[in-house]
Amino acid sequence: QGQEKLSCNPxxxxxxxxxxxxxxxxxxxxxxxxVDMELSVSGxxxxxxxxxxxxxxxxxNSPSPSNASVTVTVPVEAQAEMExxxxxxxxxxxxxxxxxxxxxxxxxxxxxxxxxxVYELHNKxxxxxxxxxxxxxxxxxxxxxxxxxxxxxxxxxxxxxxxHPDLNPAQV
Length: 172
Fold this sequence. Notes:
Layout: E1 7-13, E2 16-22, E3 50-56, E4 69-75, E5 80-89, E6 116-126, E7 141-142, E8 145-146
Antiparallel strand pairs: 1-2, 3-4, 5-6, 7-8
Protein name: ITA2B protein
Keywords: Glycoprotein, Integrin, Membrane
InterPro entries: Integrin_alpha_Ig-like_2, Integrin_alpha_Ig-like_3, Integrin_dom_sf
């Protein structure tokens, strides 16, 4: 009739993790109860798209040979908010009105003004993430002429990086 909070205790039983909840003692014959459970489970990043629980009702007073268990499958949806931050160093660049490229030079200053673009990808949670792919498109040509000469691409933090095919073609 009323609502009561259950007392539940986690423990290990036969090598599996078990949560035991005391539903009532004594319980009258023929009693019907409804139980709503909220479980907080961590470390589900690599569990796939569902987690399965075995639920079983047991009585201490009159053990039943059946003690049937019910399988409950709950979908898992990891949520994480990603944030991409970027800036350029220097943040403002003044280009000359005319620029003469020195053909065949391997000196950086003969190819233009150096501008470094830095991007940071942050996980704002609440879940951890893995297998994230960031594709960054840089307009390196305009009208068949070089707009930005892509010199170098590097990463920090144990990430893998696939280099652009037009990266440093003159080996500056």
